[in-house]
Write a structure and sequence with these properties.
This protein is mostly helical. Helix content is 81%, strand content 0%. The chain has one domain. It contains seven helices and no strands. The model has no long low-confidence stretch (mean pLDDT 85). Keywords: Membrane, Transmembrane, Transmembrane helix.
Amino acid sequence: MPTWLIISGALFGAAIHFANVIKDIDADRASGIHGAPQRVGARASATIAGLSLIIISLILNSVTNAPFLILIALVALILLITLPKRFTFWVVMAMALVDVGVLVTSGAHSLAMPA
């Protein structure tokens, strides 16, 4: 399996985790949960999720030559930082859908490319 694919998968997991926790961060803290998202807070968690998506987009752009991913990821980052936290998970899911869509439509050729 190509290294870029493993790194992208790990970053997807991190982005989704940080985004998913944001809406419950206050309740989590109150009940004694102190994971990474709870420690850094909602705004930083949104930023981490957004930066993870930008890195994924950069990786996918280098493999699939889809430069629009960079623009979409930057828009997603701005939305993650500025929108109320109840929208964070959906912004991350939308960006993940775009990235996965590019990956799937690029076909097996991109999977065979060297890391």
